[in-house]
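Priority: medium. Attachment 1 of 2:
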């Protein structure tokens, strides 16, 4: 590609690579210390996110992009995680430059397309990209990674970039464990045994076919006026 998106970036500092063990799960120390991202960054979490991506592919009939964009040139993926969505887009549109931003680089696969460019940044801070940089900005399942006071400015930042696109019991079981550990032990003061018991009971309820649990899934698509 003619342009290198990393030209104004620097090498990742070791403080972002350091992990800590909390009750048998690996977390990014920087995120825990700064209350940014409270989910694990280990192999178990990677498998859960990959499974979640497969579930979304089934729900959305393998549709990656919802806005009427037939030939995207630059795409931003906010909180790319395991990069499943970003890699799929990069492979589907080989001439498209896909930039992924995440506070943690731990879950990124080693083998990715040449047109996928991962970057490390905290989405709770203002975007550093120029206005109207991207054809599409993708933000999915980031409820636990964006501070409550940041949401208004976060959506404003996304709008400024140009167009907006967002985008099972097995997955629920993994999600319950990943989501519960830090808030329940560090903030509520519960022991890990109590947390595991709660997760197990909730998982059993989720796996019960008699329980018809439904929740709305919102796909929000936005475009700037005149864009």
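Attachment 2 of 2:
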């Amino acid at each position: 590609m003619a342009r290198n998106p990393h030209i104004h970036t620097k090498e990742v500092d070791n403080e972002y690579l350091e992990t800590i063990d909390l009750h048998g799960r690996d977390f990014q120390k920087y995120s825990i210390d700064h209350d940014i991202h409270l989910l694990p960054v280990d192999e178990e979490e990677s498998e859960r996110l990959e499974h979640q991506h497969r579930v979304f592919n089934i729900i959305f009939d393998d549709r990656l992009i919802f806005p009427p964009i037939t030939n995207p040139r630059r795409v931003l993926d906010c909180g790319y995680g395991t990069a499943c969505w970003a890699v799929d887009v990069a492979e589907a549109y080989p001439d498209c430059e896909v930039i992924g931003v995440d506070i943690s680089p731990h879950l990124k696969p080693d083998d990715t397309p040449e047109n996928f460019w991962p970057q490390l940044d905290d989405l709770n801070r203002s975007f550093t990209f120029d206005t109207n940089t991207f054809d599409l900005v993708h933000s999915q399942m980031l409820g636990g990674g964006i501070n409550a006071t940041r949401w208004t400015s976060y959506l404003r930042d996304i709008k400024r970039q140009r167009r907006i696109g967002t985008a099972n019991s097995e997955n629920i079981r993994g999600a319950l464990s990943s989501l519960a550990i830090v808030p329940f032990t560090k903030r509520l003061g519960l022991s890990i045994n109590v947390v595991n018991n709660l997760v197990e009971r909730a998982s059993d309820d989720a796996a019960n076919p008699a329980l018809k649990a439904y929740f709305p899934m919102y796909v929000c698509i936005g475009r700037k006026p005149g864009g």
